[in-house]
């Protein structure tokens, strides 16, 4: 039963009522995942350049790497499974492998993951089979990458998606209807100056994602409220990162149990309750991200918020 339920979200955008397909995507509630590609990290790979020196030294011990894996994996689902479950925004951190010949780029979170190319192929394959679903790829952290690495990565993005890439436009014009007419499905946000040179790379500033950086769920919810209140009225999307961040102390104390057992399970009910109390719209929530999106019906909860926009609609017309 559960698998059927999750796969029923694979076409949620194309199933939205016409009134919502005409609204800017910035006004809809869209589920996303945090550190989207960390479902597979390679224990045998060197520790990533995103980690502190002390951790790099420790990680020479294989046990430490196994433990790091428990803290590096923030998603259990592959890209395809996340897409089928309804996730449409992906938070991406990428890196070259220092010392490796060539310009290959990998997903990274503490440890190296799959190549970006393999990930893009997996996404593209989903989009081919679901031609009305639209996704946001937010390339927001780059490690050990020079100009050539960026050129390489951008050419791979272009090669993977071709005409599905959405060219930069006024954010308010981005409706599902508009994108369907243009047969475009992919919005790329690129937090590096090169974005200016490519029509299909949107500025990172169009996708603000304020980060609470706390282990305290009450502080997190307060932060989400405050940053939503400060949301720009025009011209950008908005990410509410409903995630708790472990401190080094937390990791040391709960090393063996890992992130999922320590922070996430305990606080998910409160986070989900907050999500259920939100409303999309001009100053409301837009993209909401979470860790381990499969643990609760996270995506379905976020998608369901869009019904509130219809109720408002009816009140106006009646």
Automatic annotation (TrEMBL):
Which SMART domains does the entry link to?
PLCXc
Q: Which UniProt keywords apply?
A: Hydrolase, Lipid degradation, Lipid metabolism, Transducer
**Phosphatidylinositol-specific phospholipase C X domain sequence ranges:** 23-191
Top-level lineage group: Eukaryota
What PROSITE patterns does this protein map onto?
PIPLC_X_DOMAIN (PS50007)
Q: Which GO terms describe its molecular function?
A: phosphoric diester hydrolase activity
Entry keyword Protease? no
Any one GO BP annotation for this protein: lipid catabolic process
Question: What is the protein name for this chain?
Answer: Phosphatidylinositol specific phospholipase C X domain containing 2
**Species, as recorded:** Sphenodon punctatus (Tuatara)
- Upper taxonomic lineage: Eukaryota, Metazoa, Chordata, Craniata, Vertebrata
Q: By which gene is this protein encoded? A: PLCXD2
């Amino acid at each position: 039963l559960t698998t059927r339920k999750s796969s029923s979200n694979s076409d949620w955008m194309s199933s939205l009522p016409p009134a919502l397909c005409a609204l800017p995507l910035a006004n809809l509630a869209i589920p996303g995942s945090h550190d989207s590609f960390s479902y597979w990290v390679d224990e045998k790979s060197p520790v990533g350049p995103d980690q502190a020196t002390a951790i790099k030294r420790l990680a020479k011990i294989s046990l430490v790497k196994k433990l790091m894996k428990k803290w590096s994996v923030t998603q259990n689902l592959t890209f395809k499974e996340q897409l089928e479950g309804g996730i449409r925004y992906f938070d991406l951190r990428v890196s070259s492998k220092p010392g490796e010949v060539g310009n290959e780029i990998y997903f990274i979170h503490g440890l190296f993951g799959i190549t970006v190319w393999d990930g893009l192929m997996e996404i593209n394959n989903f989009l081919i089979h679901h031609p009305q679903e639209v996704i946001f790829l937010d390339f927001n952290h780059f490690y050990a990458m020079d100009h050539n690495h960026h050129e390489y990565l951008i050419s791979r993005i272009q090669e993977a998606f071709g005409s599905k890439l959405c060219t930069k436009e006024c954010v308010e014009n981005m409706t599902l209807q508009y994108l369907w007419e243009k047969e475009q499905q992919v919005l790329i946000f690129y937090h590096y100056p090169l974005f200016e040179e490519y029509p299909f790379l949107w500025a990172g500033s169009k996708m603000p994602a304020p980060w609470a950086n706390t282990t305290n769920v009450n502080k997190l919810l307060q932060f989400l409220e405050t940053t939503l209140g400060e949301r720009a009225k025009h011209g950008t999307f908005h990410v509410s990162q409903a995630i708790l961040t472990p401190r080094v102390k937390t990791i040391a104390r709960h090393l063996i149990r890992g992130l999922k057992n320590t922070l996430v399970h305990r606080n998910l009910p409160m986070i989900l309750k907050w999500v259920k109390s939100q409303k999309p719209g001009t100053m409301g929530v837009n993209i909401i991200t979470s860790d381990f999106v499969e643990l609760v019906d996270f995506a379905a909860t976020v998608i369901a918020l869009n019904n509130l926009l219809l109720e408002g609609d009816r009140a106006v017309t009646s």
